[in-house]
């Protein structure tokens, strides 16, 4: 049984003009110790999916349907307090901006000890020892001294290391990392990704890595899910999706990555932009921009079907005649 | 930290010197003090003698210097009206005002902060919305109107609380306190409530607004993601971050409370410094007015300086840290 199973997840936002569907019928699994990359343009529903899993959708956003199961147990319908006990203890999260994720008025040590003691029955002294251990674990030099310092005394990269320590210090088995390196210097990004990968591997923790950086996905993830307009376009092993994308959208994404080489090719650009949630076209949401579009694409909404090692939601693979 | 303290104290001294100068000018321009001292039919020569004796013919700078030195020793001269040292008059009236202001300030904090938190955490609750409307009324009604309404309801109609005076007081050394007698405490309720009402609503609305702002912050979202209990998130993480503006406004308003005490003391016939000041204005009793001005300014300056020091306690980012000079660490 997979560690996390998401089945037909729907995230809705009731507005005055009707209900908007930000995440529409998304299903995927995350296995024990696996790193799943989630990519897509801004507004594709990547972060929203992560927020739904950890139970932190901002109101009025709500789960409108489907199930989320952790270890086979449903967690999408838990009471707020039961869900709180899962956050941090079973599912950890890391957000985009390490500069603002830490409370400026408490020392790094206080925040670590507080998190550890919320979830694990432990004396203050033991928790402190463990917290210092975690600071060392995420590569912070002189952890005993750093323990008593405030976030503003750390650099951006160091703060993101602290954030990782905070997310992992109660030993959750799943980490949701929502663009963990976007706010950091390029030179620091690779270190943070490597660190995240190492601590997950060492603890056999799984991770959902939300990003729009294909390089990060290629280097870190085992499998990758591609989202478009709130739907899953394609999911499969990284090597497969990156090298032989099945969905025309994924192919377009891959084509738009600049490559360094002796004879640089012209960059492909996907024409147009992602539809707004208020006017998603009928049939396949990608149809206005798809280079391989045909008549049925405007009528039938494709389901996710197994293609090669993975799965794609495209009528090309449904045996619909062109 | 030490440099900061010295700089802050120097600023405070400058402010006090400026205030003293204004107080000093009152003596020169609110009538001729000699007129107030000599009898009406004194000759010009007698007048000049008095002027010389009091040093009023010295250059202005010297007179100002003398005024500042005397004021620093607590000597503001003699009241024109009842011929007693001004310092003694003020000392007599200080406890009444101090106790009134202290109780009002505490009330505004003890009620204002929890109400602000409550209305921020349950913004759509019926009670919250009721409190918001009440606070709007509280913030817009003039205090003397609420004072008179309070007297009407609690003294005239219900007859529960006295409508004027301090009740019985007990002397402890030179300090007379109303805290130790039942009638003294009862007499405090209405005036302190009237005095704190504006401050109370201000603090409540401020805490609410700040709290709503802080609850949207990323570190609150991350605290939730860490699975912390709501209590810890609201009262540890969020509240501490809302306190800085609250401390600022509270400091400023504490001075305002002392100033507004004049109105409260007038409405409730409270024998404090404000009432003394109103009398002094009626009789152009310049030494009392000058002393009151200097004293209230001194309290303002002391409060503001303490508030600046308090920031350092609350916010670690403001503490000067020698290790930061060597770079941002890491």
From TrEMBL, chain A:
* Domain spans labelled ABC transporter: 4-254
Q: Where in the cell is it found?
A: Cell inner membrane
What GO MF terms are annotated? Answer: ATP binding
Instruction: State the membrane topology.
Output: Peripheral membrane protein
UniProt entry keywords in alphabetical sequence: ATP-binding, Cell membrane, Membrane, Nucleotide-binding, Transport
> Which SUPFAM superfamilies does the annotation name?
P-loop containing nucleoside triphosphate hydrolases
Against InterPro entries, the record matches this protein to: AAA+_ATPase (IPR003593), ABC_Ni/Peptide_Import (IPR050388), ABC_transporter-like_ATP-bd (IPR003439), ABC_transporter-like_CS (IPR017871), Oligopep_ABC_C (IPR013563), P-loop_NTPase (IPR027417)
Q: In terms of one coarse class, where is the protein primarily found?
A: membrane
Instruction: Give the protein family.
Output: Belongs to the ABC transporter superfamily.
UniProt-listed PANTHER family: DIPEPTIDE TRANSPORT ATP-BINDING PROTEIN DPPD, OLIGOPEPTIDE TRANSPORT ATP-BINDING PROTEIN APPD
What is the protein's given name? ABC transporter ATP-binding protein
Give the source species.
Answer: Aminobacter carboxidus
The organism's taxonomy opens as: Bacteria, Pseudomonadati, Pseudomonadota, Alphaproteobacteria, Hyphomicrobiales
UniProtKB/TrEMBL annotation, chain B:
**What topology does it adopt in the membrane?**
Multi-pass membrane protein
Q: Which family does it belong to?
A: Belongs to the binding-protein-dependent transport system permease family.
Q: Does the keyword Mitochondrion apply?
A: no
Compartments where found = Cell membrane
Q: What is this protein called?
A: ABC transporter permease
Q: Write down the CDD domains for this protein, in alphabetical order.
A: TM_PBP2 (cd06261)
- What's the superkingdom here? Bacteria
- Its transmembrane ranges are 12-30, 100-121, 133-160, 172-198, 243-263, 290-314
Does the record bear Nucleotide-binding in its keywords?
no
Pfam families reported in the protein's UniProt record: BPD_transp_1 (PF00528), BPD_transp_1_N (PF19300)
Q: Recite the UniProt keywords alphabetically.
A: Cell membrane, Membrane, Transmembrane, Transmembrane helix, Transport
The species is Aminobacter carboxidus
Q: Which residues form the ABC transmembrane type-1 domain?
A: 94-311
């Amino acid at each position: 049984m997979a560690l996390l199973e998401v089945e037909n997840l729907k995230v809705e936002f009731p507005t005055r003009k009707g209900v908007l569907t930000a995440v529409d019928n998304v299903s995927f699994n995350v296995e024990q110790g696996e790193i799943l990359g989630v990519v897509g343009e801004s507004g594709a529903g990547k972060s929203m999916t992560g927020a739904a899993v950890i139970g932190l959708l901002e109101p009025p956003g709500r789960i409108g349907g489907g199930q989320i199961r952790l270890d086979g147990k449903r967690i999408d319908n838990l009471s707020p307090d039961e869900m709180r006990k899962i956050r941090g203890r079973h599912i950890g999260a890391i957000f985009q901006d390490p500069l603002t994720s830490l409370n400026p008025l408490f020392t790094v040590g206080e925040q670590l000890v507080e998190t550890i003691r919320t979830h694990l029955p432990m004396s203050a002294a033991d928790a402190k020892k463990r917290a210092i251990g975690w600071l060392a674990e995420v590569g912070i030099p002189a952890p005993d001294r750093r323990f008593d310092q405030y976030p503003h005394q750390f650099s951006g990269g160091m703060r993101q290391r602290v954030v990782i320590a905070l997310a992992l210090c109660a030993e959750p088995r799943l980490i949701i990392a929502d663009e963990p390196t976007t706010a950091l210097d390029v030179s620091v990004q690779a270190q943070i990704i490597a660190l995240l990968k190492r601590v997950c591997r060492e603890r056999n923790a799984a991770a959902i890595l939300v990003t729009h950086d294909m390089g990060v996905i290629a280097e870190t993830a085992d499998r990758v899910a591609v989202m478009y307009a709130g739907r899953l376009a394609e999911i499969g092993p990284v090597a497969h999706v990156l090298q032989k994308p099945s969905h025309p959208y994924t192919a377009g994404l891959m084509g738009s990555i600049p490559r360094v080489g002796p004879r640089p090719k012209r960059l492909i650009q996907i024409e147009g932009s992602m539809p707004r949630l208020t006017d998603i076209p009928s049939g396949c949401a990608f149809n206005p921009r798809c280079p391989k579009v045909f008549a049925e694409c405007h009528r039938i909404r494709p389901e996710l079907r197994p293609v090669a090692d993975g799965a794609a939601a495209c009528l090309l693979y449904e045996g619909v005649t062109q | 930290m030490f440099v900061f303290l010295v700089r802050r104290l120097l600023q405070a001294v400058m402010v006090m010197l400026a205030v003293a100068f204004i107080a000093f000018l009152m003596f020169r321009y609110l009538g001729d003090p000699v007129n107030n001292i000599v009898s009406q039919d004194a000759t010009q020569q007698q007048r000049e003698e008095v002027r010389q004796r009091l040093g009023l013919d010295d250059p202005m700078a010297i007179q100002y210097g003398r005024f500042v030195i005397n004021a620093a020793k607590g000597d503001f001269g003699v009241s024109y009206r009842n011929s007693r040292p001004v310092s003694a008059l003020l000392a007599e009236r200080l406890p009444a005002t101090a106790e009134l202001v202290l109780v009002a300030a505490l009330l505004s904090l003890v009620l204002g902060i929890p109400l602000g938190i409550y209305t921020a955490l349950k913004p759509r609750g019926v009670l919250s919305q009721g409190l918001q409307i009440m606070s709007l009324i509280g913030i817009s009604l003039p205090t003397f109107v609420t004072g008179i309404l309070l007297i009407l309801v609690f003294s005239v109609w219900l007859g529960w609380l006295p409508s004027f005076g301090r009740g019985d007081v007990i002397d402890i050394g030179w300090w007379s306190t109303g805290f130790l007698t039942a009638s003294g405490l009862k007499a405090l309720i209405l005036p302190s409530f009237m005095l704190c009402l504006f401050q109370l609503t201000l603090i409540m609305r401020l805490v609410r607004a700040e709290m709503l702002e802080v609850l949207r912050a990323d570190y609150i979202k991350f605290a939730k993601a860490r699975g912390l209990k709501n209590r810890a998130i609201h009262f540890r993480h969020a509240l501490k971050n809302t306190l800085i503006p609250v401390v600022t406004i509270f400091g400023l308003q504490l001075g305002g409370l002392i100033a507004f005490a004049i109105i409260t003391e007038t409405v409730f016939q409270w024998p404090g410094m404000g009432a003394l000041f109103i009398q002094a204005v009626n009789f152009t009793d310049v030494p009392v007015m000058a002393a009151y001005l200097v004293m209230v300014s001194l309290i303002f300056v002391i409060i503001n300086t303490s508030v600046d020091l308090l920031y350092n306690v609350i916010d670690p980012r403001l503490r000067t840290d020698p290790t930061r000079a060597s770079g941002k660490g890491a």
